[in-house]
Design a protein that fits this description.
It is built from twelve helices and twelve strands. The chain has 330 residues and is an alpha+beta fold. The strands form two sheets. Strands 1, 2, 3, 4, 6, 7, 8, 10, 11 and 12 form a ten-stranded antiparallel sheet that branches. The protein binds protoporphyrin IX containing FE.
Length: 330
């Protein structure tokens, strides 16, 4: 039986016991167990177990001359089409857009089906909530409901006490206003990427997308008063009124030492680092959701000249997890 089906039919607890009995399988099944646990926590619904609520948009990607000096990627050799899926975090497709405690997400595909096809799956925080797949699995498992159908607060606290860095992302979000627009907040790709130019010179960078019209936020009170689905209407209105609906795609410059910093931490002085504008990304209109839903946004699908980290299990885990997830949603 396929392990994913086994997980579905026996439940996560059973598969954990099963995986412990077989070290080789335990290693191979971590990804499947993570996705299955995400699905369990989000009620086994048929949408994504993370960023479940979202909308697809069409966009244009306009690179700068500086981008071409840093990277030989065909994505930077001229203006390109792009596809963007904005989302609201969590596996709840009905989550209110005014919710403060969850991420806003942005999945980006530059130059679909072209030589520069490159994909980034980003959130509105510079850090992730876990630094490794094992920590992610433990984070999720600590939140599984017990026999009474409720999560065990003591278990969650024990996990948090032992893994304090898993609160960094939540603290970042809690310290900011609720995004008033999907294009009114910054997004980070979080992982360190390596740019390689035509001469073979390399540069470690972190991608940050800064909103062209500036950050726009709501205080907690105003956020609560907003309609549950205001983000899509806000962006449609912006597009109709030709107000700014785009981002500067920035590369925050780093060094080899920075690349070893876990995803739960920012780089030292990250906010004041020198950064280079690589492109402008302009949202141009609503797109059919099927364009964003029929295949995964794969963070490892990158045209040559841009590479993700080669030694980070968290980055390596993402594409396989998304590939499993898409087989379980419609
Ligand atoms: C820095 C790390 C990560 C970030 C920023 C991130 C962000 C996101 C975002 C924004 C989405 C929504 C994608 C969309 O709109 O299509 C998503 C989906 C998802 N994420 Fe992640 N993620 C990260 C790491 C991981 C890891 C390590 C796993 C599992 C091992 C994971 C599992 C998933 C799954 C299963 C989905 C649903 C994918 C689908 O059905 O298409 N993520 N993630």
């Amino acid at each position: 039986m396929n392990l994913a089906i086994l997980l579905r039919t026996t439940g996560v607890g059973a598969i954990c016991a099963f995986a412990q009995a077989s070290p080789a399988l335990a290693q191979n099944s971590t990804t499947e167990t993570i996705v299955e646990t995400m699905r369990t926590l989000s009620g086994k619904q048929s949408t994504r177990p993370s960023g479940a609520k979202g909308q697809c948009f069409a966009a244009r990607f306009t690179p700068t001359a500086e981008a071409r000096q840093l990277s030989k990627s065909p994505a930077f050799s001229g203006e390109r089409d792009a596809v963007v899926r904005f989302s609201v975090g969590s596996g709840n497709a009905k989550v209110s857009d005014g919710t403060k405690t969850v991420n806003r997400g942005m999945a980006l595909r530059i130059d679909p089906n072209g030589p520069g096809q490159s994909e980034f799956v980003m959130v509105n925080a510079p850090v992730n909530f876990v630094k490794s797949p094992d920590q992610m699995l433990a984070f999720l498992q600590a939140r599984l409901p017990g026999a009474d159908g409720k999560p065990d607060a003591a278990k969650i606290k024990a996990f948090t006490d032992a893994n304090p860095e898993t609160t960094n992302q939540g603290r970042f979000l809690a310290g900011r206003p609720v995004p008033a627009s999907w294009v009114g907040v910054s997004y980070w790709a979080i992982h360190p990427y390596t740019l390689t130019n035509a001469q073979g010179a390399t540069q470690i960078v972190k991608f940050k997308l800064s909103p062209k019209g500036g950050e726009v936020g709501l205080n907690d009170e105003d956020a609560k008063g907003k309609p549950a689905d205001f983000l899509v209407d806000e962006l449609k209105a912006r597009l109709a009124e030709k107000r700014p609906a785009g981002f500067d795609v920035m590369a925050i410059l780093g060094s080899a030492g920075d690349a070893a910093i876990p995803a739960t931490q920012t780089w030292p002085d990250e906010e004041t680092r020198r950064s280079v504008k690589l492109a402008e990304l302009t949202v141009t209109g609503l797109a059919e959701n099927d364009i964003c839903d029929r295949e995964i946004f794969d963070p490892t699908r990158l045209a040559e000249g841009v590479a993700g980290p080669t030694d980070d299990p968290l980055f390596a885990e993402r594409a396989p997890a998304y590939a499993i997830s898409i087989t379980q949603r419609n």
